[in-house]
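Here is an idea for our session: we take a single protein and study its fold together. To get us started, please write out a protein record for me. Once you have written the record down, we can walk along the chain together.
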Amino acid sequence: MKKCNALITILLALSVISCGDDSKEKETYFSINEMILKSKYNGTEPVILQINNNKNKTIDSIVYFINNEKLNSVKGNTKFSFDLKGKKLGYQNLKALIFFSGDTISTSHRIELVADKAPALWNYDIVNTYEHDINAFTEGYEFYRDTLIESTGQNGNSYIAKVDYKTGKTIKKVALEQQYFGEGITVLNDKIYQLTWQNAIGFIYDANTMKKIKSFPYDKKVEGWGMTNDGRYIYHSDGTEKIWRMDPETQKLIDYVNVYTNDSKIKSVNELEWIEGKIYGNIWQKDAIAVVNPQTGAVEAVLDLSALRSKVTNPEAEVLNGIAYNKKTKTIFVTGKNWNKTFEIRVKQ
C-alpha cells in the first residue's frame, strides 16, 4: 500500500511539472508586435496592434483590452487600430486575449501617453522684493484676503502663520505637534486645509482665528506635498507625477491627473497654486514652475526662476517652494525654503 501511495505521489508530481512546462511553452506562442508600436504616443496618432504568431498557430480571434477595458475583437490576426482619446496621460496597459485551436492565451505590453505639445517658455518681471523669514522651511504659501498664510516643515519646527508680506513679519503662528512635518496649505470657504508629509493626516483650521477645527486621515496611501483649490475642489500633490482632486467636505481623494510634458512625466510636483484656471506647481529640486492643465495634467508652460536664486543671500537657502497669487494685483509671490527674500513677479506669456 505504501508503494502504491508513493507511486501515485510521483505520478501527480510529474503531471504538475508537465502542465507547468506546457503552460510556460504556450506563453511563447504569441506576443504583441512591438515593431509597429511606439513607446510613447501624444494622442494625435493611432495605435496599431497586431500579434506575433511565433509558432504559426491558427488564430481564430483576438480580443484587445486597454487598462482592463475591452477595445474590440478581430477575426484571425488582422491589424487593429484605435486612438487614445479620453485616456489619462501616463502608462497604458495593453492586453490581447488570443483564441486558437480550442485554447486561449493572453499577452500584454505597455505604452505611454504624453502631452501633445511642448510647453511654452514664459518670462517674468520682478515687481517687488520683500523680506522673508530665513528660518521658514516653506511648504505652503497662499493669500487669504490681504494676508499671506504660510506653512512650514521640519519635525519640531512646523507651523502655520499669518504673515505681513510687506515686512515678512509673523502676525500669528500656530505650531504643529513635534511628530508632524507640515506641508502644503490652501484656504477654502474661510478654512485653512493643511497636509503633513508622511503622517497620513491633515488638519483644518478656522482661517480667521486659526483655531484647529479637526484633523482628517488620508483615505489613500499617499504622501502630503502641495495643496490648492479652484473654489470647489482641493488639489493635492503627493511627490509623484500625480495631482489628486479632493472633496473638501469629506476630505476624500476622488480622482487624479498625471503631470506630463510632450516628452516625459514630471515627478515630484510640490507646492501648488490655482491661477486663472491653471495649476502652477513647484518642481522639487528645480528652480522652476510648471503650469499644468488641471483637466489633463499636460504641462502647458514652464517658468524658469533660476535667476532668482542668485538674489537670495542666505547660503543655506534650499529649493524654490512657495507660490501665492494676489488676485487684486494679478501678481505672483514666490519664495523658497529658508530664503531670506520673497519676490513679487508678473508673468509675461
Notes: Residues 14-19 have pLDDT under 50 and may be disordered. The domain at 120-348 is CATH 2.120.10.30 (Neuraminidase).
